[in-house]
Amino acid sequence: MKDEDGKITKFYLVFWKLYRIDNHRKKRYKGGRLRIFSVENVNLPVHPHGRKEVTYMAYQYWTYDTLHRLCMDAFQKFGFTEREADIIQDVLLTSDLFGIESHGMQRMVRYHKCIEKGMIKIDAKPTVVFETPISAVVDAHDAMGQLVSYYAMELAIEKAKKSGVGIVSVRNSNHYGIAGYYAKMACKEGLMGFSCTNSEAIMVPTNGRKAMLGSNPIACAFPAEPYDFFFDASTTVVTRGKLEMYNKMEKPLPEGWALDKDGHPSTDAPDVLANIVAKNGGGIMPLGGSTEQLGSHKGYGYGMLCEIFSSILSMGSTSNYCMTGGKGNICHGFMAINPAYFGDPEAIKAHFSTYLQELRESPKADGATQIYTHGEKEIAAIADRKANGIPVNDNTMVEVLDLCNYLGLDFASYFGDYRPPVKEDVFKGNY
Question: What is the 3-state secondary structure (H, E, C) of the chain?
Fold first, then answer.
C-alpha cells in the first residue's frame, strides 16, 4: 500500500511477527488478485507478551477487467440497460483508476441500499422543466445520479457548442460519483467543463455545531498539452467517503477533519458517521478547518457557491434536506464554456499549456523533486492501477459479497476462492 508520500510499504502479519513484502515479490492469484496486508501502527496497545498488539487491514488488488465485469453484471441485474450500466461503472471505475478510493468500488453499497429502499428509481428518466438557448433546469425524478448527470452535461455541451456557454441545474437526483467525471466530458469536446453537486449535510458551517451543507465538490477541466488541466475537490476538508474508508480501516481520523455532535474536534470515524446519519449534530469541517483564522469561512463560502449552482438555481433541496423522507433530493450543477467564443481555441490552449509548463519548471522547495499541475497525479494513478491492479479494502469486499448474494451473482466467478473476513465491530449504518 502507498503511504501519504506515495512510498510502497507492505507488511504481512503472522503470529505477531511482521514480514516485509517487497514490491517485486507480489504474486497474482486467481481472479486477478494481489493480496496485501498493511499494518497501521497508530496508538498500538502493548501485547501481554511484551509485543505491540497489532490490528490489520487488508487490501485486494483486482484487475480492471474483473471489476468492470462485476459492475456491468450487477447494474444490469438491478434492471439498468447495458448502456446505462456502462455509464455508471465508468464513473465508478474512473474514480478508482484516479486513486479516489472513496468514490469507486466502495460506493457500491450506497447504490445497493438506495435502490433496495426505492430511493433510486431505476426506470426514472430526467426531464427538462425550464430551458433557454444557454441554460436548462432538469428534474431527475429520483433517477440514478450518474445517468441524469451524464444527460445534463451532454445538454450543457450541446448548448455551449451552439451558443458559447451551457449551464444546466438539476434537482431531485441522487449521488453522482466524482464531480470531475462530468467536467472531463466537456474537456474531451474541447470545452471548459465545470461540475458541482450538493449532498447530504456533512459540513458544519464556521462557528456552528450542526452539519448544514454537503461536501459540495467543485470540479473544473480545461484542454491543455501534454495533458489537460483537471481539478476536483470537495469544499470540506475531506469527503464523507474518506471517513467511510477510515472506518473500514479502523483508523482514527486525523486531527482537523471532523467535529462531534457538540462541535468539538473528533477523531472517532464511527461516531461522526453515526451522528451524520442520525442528524444529531457534528460532521466534517469546511476546507480551512473550524476557525476563520485558518480560512474556515472560505471553504464554507465555496460550499455555498455550489449550493447556488445546484439547489438554488434548480429550486431543489438544499443540503440540509438531502437524504430525508425516503428521497435523495440531491442537486447538481453543470457548465460548459466554448473557448472559441473568446478567440482561437488552439491559441488559447497553447497559451494555457505554456503557463502550466512554466509552473512545473518553476523553482522547487528544498527536498521537493516535482511541482505538479492539476491532473498529473491522476494520469500516473491510471497507469499504476492498470499495471498493478485496483486496490479494494476487505470491508468493501464484504459489501460486494452481500451485493452478489442479493442479486444472485456468483461471487466466485469474479474473485475465485477469496472470501472477505467479516468484522462485526465495523460501523455499517451508513445507508
Answer: CECCCCCECCEEEECCEEEECCHHHCCCECCCEEEEEEECCCCCCECCCCCECCCEEEEEEECHHHHHHHHHHHHHHHCCCHHHHHHHHHHHHHHHHHCCHHHCHHHHHHHHHHHHCCCCCCCCCCEEEEEECCEEEEECCCCCHHHHHHHHHHHHHHHHHHHCEEEEEEEEECCCCCHHHHHHHHHHCCCEEEEEECCCCCECCCCCCECCECCCCEEEEECCCCCCEEEEECCECCCHHHHHHHHHHCCCCCCCCEECCCCCEECCHHHHHHHHHHCCCEEECECCCCCHHHCHHHHHHHHHHHHHHHHHCCCCCCHHHCCECCECCEEEEEEEECHHHCCCHHHHHHHHHHHHHHHHHCCCCCCCCCCCCCCHHHHHHHHHHHHHCEEEEHHHHHHHHHHHHHHCCCHHHHHCCCCCCCCCCCCCCCC
CATH number of 1-116+389-431: 1.10.1530.10
Rounded CA-CA distance 285/258 in Å is 6
Domain boundaries defined on the chain: 1-116+389-431, 127-237+285-341
pTM of the model: 0.85
CATH number for the segment(s) 127-237+285-341: 3.30.1370.60
Q: What is the CA radius of gyration of the chain?
A: 22
Closest to 184 (Cα-Cα) out of 128, 134, 225, 223: 223
Written as nine digits, the cell of 233 is: 475537490
Cβ 171 vs Cβ 138: under 8 Å: yes
Tally the residues of the chain.
431
Compute CA 258 distance to the chain's CA centroid, rounded to the nearest angstrom.
18
Neighbours of 427 (CB within 10 A): 18
| pLDDT, position 429 | 63
239-274 pLDDT per residue, tens: 988 998 898 888 999 999 999 999 899 999 999 999
